[in-house]
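Sequence only, no structure available. Ideas?
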Amino acid sequence: MRRFTPYLAASTERNCRMFEIIDYLPQYHEDFKRLNMEWLEQYQLVEEYDLEVLADPQKKILDGGGHVYLAKYGDVIVGSAGIINEGNGVFELAKMAVAPAYRGKGLSRLLIEKCLHKARQLQAKSVMLYSNSQLKTAISLYEKYGFNHIPNIDSPLVTADVKMELSLEGEADSD
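Reply:
I predicted one. Tokens follow.
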């Protein structure tokens, strides 16, 4: 499978320049939690596992070799995405959220690209994700990035009825 090269329309590229993607910092914990709880509650998908990760991203994501990115618009955190180290070269794309007022501006693409770049830097073999079939726009976006549907076995989430994976074999990024 060829590596997906994203293309953003000119208007989307202009919108993307308004945002800054930064590393997670503890001072933004409440923003990270709020953004994710907002969409989880909207779709009635909140689970104990989510609450644990959102309560302590340092322990549940960062200390295990994962990474979280936040999107800033001015001084406001308007998006998040992270990769969780699942071991053996596998990372999970997780906690992807964009505030409703900032959707449709290419921000999800920026966050996915940042996470995939980091996974390649870490020499990941693959990136997988869990989702829910209600989230059709998100699933379509993942498919555009080359994620394939795979059997949903051993999900930590009861409400996750979709599992997808992107193979990164031989795709390590430099820098």
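The beta strands are 20-23, 67-73, 76-87, 90-98, 126-131, 148-149, 162-167.
Hope that gets you unstuck.
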